[in-house]
Specification:
Layout (H helix, E strand, L loop, with lengths): L13 H4 L11 E5 L28 H13 L4 E5 L9 H10 L5 E6 L8 H7 L3 E5 L5 H8 L5 H13 L3 E6 L10 H11 L2 E5 L15 H12 L2 E4 L9 E5 L5 E5 L12 E4 L4 E3 L8 E2 L1 H5 L4 H13 L21 H4 L2
Parallel strand pairs: 1-2, 1-10, 2-3, 3-4, 4-5, 5-6, 6-9
Antiparallel strand pairs: 7-8, 8-9, 10-11, 11-12
Helix pairs in contact: 7-8
This protein binds S-adenosylmethionine and iron/sulfur cluster.
Length: about 350
């Protein structure tokens, strides 16, 4: 499924000011993982008994993160996606997000979350100016939801949070990782649910990263065919807010949309606009490369701003042309591929 679309990801003022990699891509987006902790154990992300978490003292502090974000926004990073682990598992995450949003040059701050800890914070996030929340919701069926997330929580905890977010003016997106046997029979209900409410459901192709390599995903062409069978023809849409790699489609008569993020079967590396900071402070210029720069030694070793900016620029310049999914030989060091630490 190949889509021709306008180059919105790489059309940014950053082209004039900031970070352009060796392949001509404008880098204007950071995925910032606040913690490797999570209250779920999704089958494609976290081992059933949890993972050995990084001790709190080894996470970059909020002050250190704000310093990095200030330097990055000075280089043209405009949008920040707060992720994890479950970002709300980190104490004072919302206060941090408020401070981040106030930094000069920061345009967009959004969040990706399983939604189960968000209820008390929705109004505050709207007040801060968080423009979008991506909710991981793999099924509306409580048993299937629990099986994928290996959690006692259920979708009924998250649905009111989505409604509250939408009411507060926050764009609601639903992230679904379609998996054989677990939730492949639930995609129609999820699609209908999103379309009827004006939400944007995105089917994320399973990536063979970390535990994902041992799971079986449902290919996007199969999902698209099923959605068209159930809801009619899909027409490409370019007006869904966001800065990411999803290809969106509208279904006649509905405010919501259906999106596909198909990193494996429709490699979107040529239009990649992002870098990642893992919860441990590793700057990754590509999700699936065993490369990165540890920023904590710089932050804690007295490096001045100019020295850090130099490292950031070099990391972007060395961003690989594309990922190497499927090439297990490239999976050198395991901690570079833990999704709950990288943040997706
Ligand atoms: N806990 C939050 C959540 O689940 O939205 C944020 C962190 S989670 C690592 C970010 C995103 O990565 C989620 O949408 C999750 O489904 C996705 N993800 C994790 N492992 C994946 C994999 N192996 N393949 C595809 N998506 C994956
Ligand atoms: Fe937690 Fe998100 Fe990973 Fe699921 S995908 S275990 S909710 S970090």
């Amino acid at each position: 499924m190949t889509i021709q679309r306008p180059g919105r990801d790489n059309a940014s003022p950053a082209a004039e000011t900031g970070l352009i990699d060796a392949h001509g891509r404008v880098i204007n987006y950071l995925r910032l993982s606040l913690t490797d902790r999570c209250n779920f154990r999704c089958v494609y992300c976290m081992p059933p008994d949890g993972a050995p978490y990084m001790p709190h003292g080894q996470l970059p502090t909020y002050e250190e993160l704000l310093r990095l974000c200030r330097l990055m926004s000075g280089l043209g990073i405009r949008c920040f996606k707060i992720t994890g682990g479950e970002p709300l598992c980190r104490k004072d995450a919302v206060a941090f997000i408020r401070r981040l949003k106030r930094l000069p040059g920061v345009d967009g701050v959004t969040l990706t979350s399983n939604g189960t800890l968000l209820a008390p914070y929705v109004e505050e996030l709207a007040d801060i100016g968080v423009s979008g929340i991506n909710f991981s919701l793999n099924s509306l069926n409580p048993e299937h939801y629990s099986a994928v997330g290996r959690t006692r929580a259920g979708p009924e905890q998250v649905l009111p949070v989505m409604a509250a977010a939408a009411k507060a003016g926050i764009t609601v997106k639903i992230n679904v990782v379609p998996l054989r046997t677990y939730n492949e029979g639930d995609l129609r209900d999820l699609t209908r649910f999103a379309l009827e409410r004006g939400y944007h459901v995105r089917f994320i192709e399973l990536m063979p990263v970390g535990l994902g390599a041992a799971c079986a995903g449902v290919p996007p062409h199969e999902i698209r065919a099923a959605v068209e069978r159930d809801f009619g023809p899909l027409s490409a849409s370019y007006d869904v807010p966001g800065n990411g790699p999803a290809d969106y489609f509208r279904v006649s008569g509905h405010a919501g949309s259906v999106g596909f993020i198909s990193a494996v079967s429709n490699k979107f590396c040529p239009r990649c606009n992002r870098i990642r900071l893992t919860s441990g402070g590793l700057l990754k210029s590509c999700l699936h490369r065993d490369a990165g720069v540890e920023l904590k030694p710089l932050l804690r070793g007295g490096a001045n701003d100019a020295a850090i900016v130099k490292v950031l620029r070099r990391a972007v310049m060395e961003k690989p042309a594309g990922h190497t999914f499927g090439d297990l030989a490239s999976e050198g060091s395991r901690q570079h591929f833990l999704m709950h630490s990288i943040g997706g």
